[in-house]
Design goal:
68 residues, mainly alpha
C-alpha cells in the first residue's frame, strides 16, 4: 500500500508541476510585452526562471512535509 501511495504522490507532483508551468507560461508570456507591444525575451526568461524556482521550492516543501 505504501508503494502505491508513493507512486500516486509522485504522479500528483508531476501533474501539478506541469500544469503550473503551462498555466504560468501562458500568463507570463502576456506580461513579457512592453507598452509599445515589443516582446522582451530576456524578461520572459527571467519570469520563467522565477516560476520554475517557485514550483521547485513548493514541491520540495510539500515532499518534506509528507515525509514526516
Amino acid at each position: 500500500m505504501a508503494a502505491i501511495k508513493l507512486m500516486w504522490d509522485a504522479k500528483r507532483q508531476i501533474i501539478w508541476a506541469t500544469t503550473g508551468f503551462i498555466v504560468g507560461t501562458f500568463f507570463l508570456y502576456r506580461d513579457a510585452f512592453d507598452e509599445n507591444g515589443n516582446f522582451s525575451l530576456s524578461f520572459f526568461l527571467f519570469l520563467e526562471l522565477l516560476l520554475v524556482l517557485i514550483i521547485t521550492v513548493m514541491s520540495y516543501l510539500y515532499a518534506r512535509k509528507n515525509r514526516s
